Amino acid sequence: MATTPAYGWRYLALADPPNIAQLGEDLALDVEGTVQDVQSDVTALGVDVTAIQAVLDAPGTDYSSSFVIGASVTPPTKGTLTTYAASYFPVGQWVDYGFNITIDTGGGWNPGSGSWYFPVPITAHVRALAQAVGPVYVADQGTALVVGVCFFDTVDRLTIVLQSVPGALLGASGPGTAWATSDFMRASIRYERA
User: Fold this and answer.
1) Residue 88's domain spans which residues?
2) Residues 119 and 165 in one domain
3) Is 75 helix (H, G, I), strand (E, B) or coil?
4) pLDDT tens digits, residue range 93-133?
5) Are 148 and 193 in contact (CB under 8 A)?
6) Are 44 and 66 contained in the same domain?
7) 45 lies in the same domain as 83
8) Which of 187, 183, 171, 68 is nearest to 116 (CA)?
9) Residue 34 contacts by C-beta under 8 Å, 6 or more apart in sequence?
10) What is the mean pLDDT of residues 167-182?
11) Rounded to an integer, what distance in angstroms lies between the CA atom of residue 101 and that of residue 47?
12) Does residue 110 sit in the same domain as residue 188?
């Protein structure tokens, strides 16, 4: 008996004696074996897809307790009423990262002095240096919404450049006026990890 080149299914060649019963049995068994192999592959693929989906559906890692703002001169004092919330989600070579800061000038808040630096949970690749990696929205309750961009000045920290004042880094002086209660920052970035 001859076999097909792709799946190896048996069939009667011209030189084979006719035996329809044997051919039918052999072909049925060969087809069933192929279908079982395909079913095993589909089952394995389903497990892989399920594992990938579980990773994508997982919540981000909370980074709030490690989030501490640095500064070029004196870092801000958070106090008891200002809130920092941060989380990240690594996906392969990339990190999705976001942070929210809501200012409350009571409770010991002090903006410090100089421009601010923002921590990252996973060290960035050197290719991320000096690249814009995401937007930041700063609500200055005294004026308006200010837009800026986050970029890495070193592989382990971000700075924010405000669009309203070209080249100005966000820091102690505030987003346009002095920091006030209810001012906030929202950043959402994606960067390549080291």
Assistant:
1) 61-192
2) yes
3) coil
4) 999 999 999 999 888 989 999 999 999 999 999 998 878 89
5) no
6) no
7) no
8) 171
9) 7, 9
10) 79
11) 40
12) yes
Given a contact cutoff of 8 angstroms between Cβ atoms, the answer to whether 67 and 119 are in contact is: yes
Q: What are phi and psi of 42, to 5 degrees?
A: -65, -40
- List CB contacts of 97: < 8 A, sequence separation 6 or more: 63, 86, 87, 88, 89, 120, 121, 188, 189, 190, 191
Residues 43 and 70 in one domain: no
* DSSP codes of every residue in 68-97: --EESSBPPB-TTT-EEEEEEEEETTEEEE
Q: Which of 96, 76, 92 is nearest to 84 (CA)?
A: 76
Q: Are residues 107 and 186 in the same domain?
A: yes
Residue 29 phi, psi dihedral angles, 5° rounding? -65, -40
CA distance 186 to 114: 20
Two tokens, residue 149 = 């961009």
Alpha carbon distance 22, 5 (integer Å): 20
Q: What is the pLDDT of residues 12-44, one digit of tens each?
A: 788 888 887 777 788 788 888 888 877 777 777
Q: Tokens 């009571």 — which residue?
A: 106
Residues 135 and 168 reside in one and the same domain:
yes
Distance of CA 192 to the CA centre of its chain: 9
Could you tell me if 94 and 111 lie in one domain?
A: yes
Kindly compute the dihedral angle of the four CA atoms of residues 13, 18, 21, 27, in this order, to the nearest 10 degrees: 0
